[in-house]
Amino acid sequence: MAPALGDGEFDNDDYYSLLNVRREATQEELKGSYRRLCMLYHPDKHRDPELKRQAEQLFNLVHQAYEVLSDPQSRAIYDIYGKRGLDVDGWEVVERKRTPVEIREEFERLQREREERRLQQRTNPKGMISVGVDATDLFDRYEEDYEDVPGGGFPHVEINKMHISQSIEAPLTTSDTAVLSGSLSTHNGNGGGNINVALRRVTSAKGWGEVEFGAGDTHGPLVGMKIFRNLTARCFVTTQCGLHFSSRGVRPSCTTMLARHLDKNTMGYLQWRWGTQSSMNTSIVRDTKTSHFTLAMQLGIPHSFMMMSYQYKFQDDDQTKVKGSIKAGFFGTVVEYGAERKISRHSVLGATVSVGVPQGISLKIKLNRASQTYFFPIHLTDQLLPSAVFYATVGPLVFYLAIQRLVIRPYVRAQKEQDLEKHRESSASDIARKRQEAESAVLLMQESVRRIIETEESKMGLIILNAWYGKFVTDNSQRHERAKVIDVTVPLQCLVKDSKLILTEATKSGLPGFYDPCVGEEKSLKVLYQFQGVMHQVLSPEEEALRIPKQSHRIDADT
After folding, report:
1. Which residues, listed in sequence order, are joined to residue 178 by a DSSP beta bridge?
2. 3-state DSSP percent of the chain in helix, strand and coil, to 5
3. Which residue, of 154, 436, 504, 518, has the greatest Cβ tally within 10 A?
4. Do the record's keywords include Coiled coil (predicted)?
């Protein structure tokens, strides 16, 4: 089932788990499970007013689950978007669709209408801060030049350039957006800035257009236009033209890019640039789940080059990537290698070593934090020195490992605990409700369980001796373990039929008589049962199907 609507909201009503049926259950399977639970929870079976009230609540809950899953349209909505997908305004006036695809399309239309009402409240801020560091004195210094200079024994490291840019989007209508952006730059004491305003309109599902106006002391006034158009399902074109006004006159420029999908994972690009720096560029980019490959060639003024890069993506939780590239042209040759890794939920840290002739050796550090980018290019030396390559490679790695152990891991661990605690606090009322429902269900099951046990004992069938559900610990702290689990012996015995217990692949916390004792943590079901006079035991992970009895669960006499 797709995630329900509204991030961070609590939703523990798994109808499939409540009825203990497969997600592919037929109408007959649904009806059979529904009848059995109705017999268990029917209010007329109880004379005690409190038990009668509790039975009525559980009976209505089971009836609600059956109504949703037995109706094809409601079931399709629930399967795709969860329980809250049924509560979206507008479903009551929607023509009853036949397929989940049509229902998904209708749902997305209703969602778009909701998004339009919140349109004026949204922006998309993006920013970048780049700080250039000149550290060539670390490797290129000559000691005799500093012998008579006070403090000359220490290398001189300075910031020689800086660039700051920021942009925000302001939606005007569903198809029109205004973009405001600006930047400030300085290099060796000289700098400037500019500001730009762009108006973008989505003309159709196939394209959009943008008009841009800018002013500043870097390039002078600017008037530009950009057009994007899908030519076919596999091909699109982008054209950008501009006029730069300065004291030297008007400088026109134009860039056109044609792109085409060569296959599922490969794109081909052709780009023409006309102006003060004219060029033609062609490239092939292949992006898969595990790798990213680029091959590019440019012919132009003043630079022509060939470039090849490869990036390998590790399939781990930190989204680690290693990359390497080589670029050769009229300006020389540059070899780069590096890595990047996710260090928190919204942050990615990367480092790249650049070795080139005649550029020298540089270390580039980049931190992406949500939509903000922080870039630190550090120029180490103008020469090809093995020592500079070594320190540029090993230094960031050692620094990262130290920061990872001393700062990042403790921070991430504390953040997870804080988020978990907030989730528990926000869902406390729902957890209390589920716990009360579970305790009520256990009370209502007592008579049925007694009859089931008598029947199973008469034929040496399946008897649930003990069953616990929750988080189990491995430190042999029995008291701590009891605080993390709940006793579900009665609910499991109630599900026994013909000396068999079958649990489907669903969240076990939704089963009758169950609730979640440790929200947000991994849970398991531990069962000790007797079958044909022999003891058995099994530990079943959450959302994993379970069938008992099984020979593999048998406890040996020596155990």
Report:
1. 170, 199
2. 35, 40, 30
3. 504
4. yes
* Distance of alpha carbon 261 from alpha carbon 269, whole angstroms: 9
Which pLDDT belongs to residue 85? 63
C-alpha to C-alpha distance for 111 and 73, rounded to whole angstroms: 18
Show Cβ contacts of residue 165 under 8 Å, excluding neighbours closer than 6 positions: 127, 128, 181, 182, 183, 184
Torsion, CA 395, CA 400, CA 402, CA 406, rounded to 10: 160
509 and 472 in contact (C-beta within 8 Å)? no
DSSP string, 227-261: EEEEEETTEEEEEEEEEEEETTEEEEEEEEEEEEE
Query: What is the Cα–Cα distance from 209 to 180, expressed in whole angstroms?
Result: 16
Secondary structure in 3-state letters for 98-138:
CCHHHHHHHHHHHHHHHHHHCHHHCCCCEEEEEEEEECHHH
The sign of the torsion formed by the CA atoms of 553, 554, 555, 556 equals negative
Evaluate whether 496 touches 456 at the Cβ level (below 8 Å). Answer: yes
Reported as a pLDDT band with limits 50, 70 and 90, residue 502 is: confident
Which tokens go with 406?
């001393």
- Please tell me the distance from the alpha carbon of residue 164 to that of residue 184, in angstroms, as a whole number: 5
Q: Two tokens at 138?
A: 């670390």
| Distance between CA atoms of residues 512 and 39, nearest Å | 13
Judging by DSSP bridges, how do beta strands 347-357 and 360-369 pair with one another? antiparallel
Provide the 3-class DSSP secondary structure of residue 436: helix
Place of tokens 């000149």: 134
Instruction: Compute the distance between CA of residue 450 and CA of residue 76 in angstroms, rounded to an integer.
Output: 38
Measured from the Cβ of residue 233, the count of other Cβ atoms closer than 10 Å reads 7
Neighbouring-strand partners of residue 249: 246
Kindly state the DSSP code that residue 556 receives in the 8-state scheme: P
Closest listed residue to residue 380, CA positions, set 136, 152, 170, 203? 136
Q: Computed over its alpha carbons, how large is the radius of gyration of the chain?
A: 33
H/E segment holding residue 55 = helix 49-70
Q: Residue 41 carries which side chain, given as an amino acid letter?
A: Y
**Sequence-ordered strand ranges (E) for 7-58:** none
pLDDT of residue 280: 94
At the second CATH level, the architecture of 124-140+157-385 is Beta Barrel (2.40)
Whether residue 27 has pLDDT greater than 50: yes
Q: Quote the CA–CA distance of 75 and 177 in Å, as a whole number.
A: 38
Inter-residue contact 542 to 507 (CB < 8 Å):
yes
Position 234: which residue type? R
Task: Using DSSP, state whether 446 is helix, strand or coil.
Answer: helix
User: What are 540's strand-pairing partners?
Assistant: 525
Poorest-pLDDT segment among 84-98, 366-380, 500-514: 84-98
Euclidean distance between CA atoms 131 and 468, whole angstroms: 57
DSSP string of 300-352? ESS--EEEEEEEEE--STT--EEEEEEEEETTEEEEEEEEEEE-SSSEEEEEE
Q: Which of 21, 4, 20 is closest to 12 using CA atoms?
A: 4
Question: What CATH number should be reported for the domain whose range is 15-85?
Answer: 1.10.287.110
Which distant-in-sequence residues (6+ apart) come within 8 Å of 10 by Cβ? 423, 426, 427, 430, 431
